[in-house]
Amino acid sequence: MQFFPAIDLLGGRAVRLEEGKRDRATEFHANPVELVAELARGGADRLHVVDLDGAFGEARQHALLAAIIAASPIPVEVGGGVRDRAALAAVLAVGAAHVVLGTAAVRDPAFVEEACRAHPGRIIVAVDARDGVVAVAGWTAASNVTAIELGQQADRWGAAGLLYTDVARDGLRGGPNVEATVELQRAVGCMVIASGGVASLADLEELRARDCRAVVVGRALYDKRFTVTAAARVCHGGAP
Hints:
By secondary structure, the chain is of the alpha/beta class. It contains eleven helices and twelve strands.
């Protein structure tokens, strides 16, 4: 199982949200670039970066994204409010190895299908769900599409992977939704990346034991519940 440490950016700072809510943000670092050396080592496979300003419809933090990517020795995937061709081109231009598309997959599926085919192996489709139904617009609104339906559609488009987040668990350290993640992985052929709620090495062991293929971890690392090195070892099948 691959291991992706996360950095969420809000107003130029590294934060973590609870359930994706802006008014429940905790700041962890004033200079996110300084976090890269700590997170992108010890066996981490990819750095997962979310531009929350972009997700909330504000000006994207392109200069900060470029600095993080330049500082990272491992590939960086970037998400957060990439909802049209111009936004996608701008994120690719700053050096993102992979780009996460979320709301657009529901509201502009033709664009996301085009992106998957134009950039093979580089587009991750976010499947953000609450009670099995996809949430959009920075998790502030529900759609009429189920997680399985969106995942299967993205798989047909040729998405490189699906980023599955149970938004009711994100940032709360109550454990990931293993069953829903496994169910989605069984329904598609592409890689499903588990996200949201990981609080312990035992959570990572359970995900790996259930044949999950990748996982994103944020708050548990910032809270020092375990290290990047220990997490990577568990994800890769070793002892912490």
